[in-house]
Amino acid sequence: MSPRPKKNQQTINLQEAIKDTAWKQIAEYGAPALSLRGLARVLGITAPAIYNYYPDRDALVTALIVDAFTSLGESQKTSIQDLPPGDHTARLTALGLNYREWAMAYPQRYLMIFGTPIPGYHAPEDITVPAATWALQPLIATLQAIFEDGSLRVDRSALMTPDLASMLASWSQFAGGPNVEVLYAALIIWSRVHGLVTMEIGGQMPSFITDPGEVFRREIENIKIQYLNINPRNGKTLY
Amino acid sequence: MSPRPKKNQQTINLQEAIKDTAWKQIAEYGAPALSLRGLARVLGITAPAIYNYYPDRDALVTALIVDAFTSLGESQKTSIQDLPPGDHTARLTALGLNYREWAMAYPQRYLMIFGTPIPGYHAPEDITVPAATWALQPLIATLQAIFEDGSLRVDRSALMTPDLASMLASWSQFAGGPNVEVLYAALIIWSRVHGLVTMEIGGQMPSFITDPGEVFRREIENIKIQYLNINPRNGKTLY
Hints:
Number of helices of chain A: 10
CATH topology of the largest domain in chain A: Tetracycline Repressor, domain 2
CATH architecture of the largest domain in chain A: Orthogonal Bundle
Number of strands of chain A: 0
Largest sheet of chain A: none
Oligomer: homodimer
Strand content of chain A: under 5%
């Protein structure tokens, strides 16, 4: 006999089955078409049975968003766990390449958290923001280590306006005190890899770019050149 | 009496009315829910009347995408038309800021061309690619002028792989011969402003960034610092 209580096992299976089926429906019909009644029909269960887990569509969407951010955060964390803490270039490269790999492996999850917002859905920020923050954490921690090492080129940016400095200071306080330029760099590096991945997944790359990975990998190199002061011609650190 | 033939006038009005109504439906229910029958119902016309203009949903979607790219391209072109051709920093700034302004003014158009692809819709590339290319043209032309002036810092990038060089060479041939590093810079600058705007429109900015415009404007300054060799501390060109 299995040591697990059967009922609990079924509960977990049904909750996972609802989410799995939801991802499939999203892939086929788009996230705006998602409906709990439709899912119940496909799963062969009653609508009230699904309401036990998700009282409405928005609750299910929130659960999918949190799962997606968690999956991305785990993937980011795993990508650097075996790399020496002091190998900054290797860690930045791994995080950057991993972002694209994760997006290509899970395009529906990627589009759910970064694509067109679902009309009528309002994310409960107290739930989705911590999940998003957690996904960005490995990049922030890596940049903070580079900064503490004295290797982050923060002097190559335009001066900060007082408004921007104040927003970043609030964020830093919330995030346990990383340098404000570290937070800014994390935001910009994220938006840069994100911009390219969004274009690739959405099919918006110029048609001549038959391998968007080539553009992506060069952009990762250029990000390191700018932030870590690496010689573009030989890949050596200029310090 | 109006000099215009009445029937033609009606034709134009109905076609525009179909598209206007489609944008409203997209805003309310999402692009995947768009249906010609639904539009006919809202407009109080028969389904066959709509098929005169758009034989199927995909034809309408393609028309909306082309309109959106045309609107973006016009907006980009207009943003620099009164600036002196030699004022590179002013022109790059204008193009960058205009991209965000256009997206904020027309979020549905922005999401239609850059958001989550509509399930089941396949863009006819011979129609949508030229429209997209045309929208990017003002940036490419501006960067090419900067390059011909000897002011574009193309030496700060990682070496190009032969594969990337070959893709860019094909694109250059198609685009009438801009330098391959100009095309690459256009693609990267576009992806950088695009990444930030996508995050802002999608509500994916960290919640502490209460004015994403501050981040956007600093990123435009940083792009100019990197590509035009401007001193970050005083905004003066280093040449």
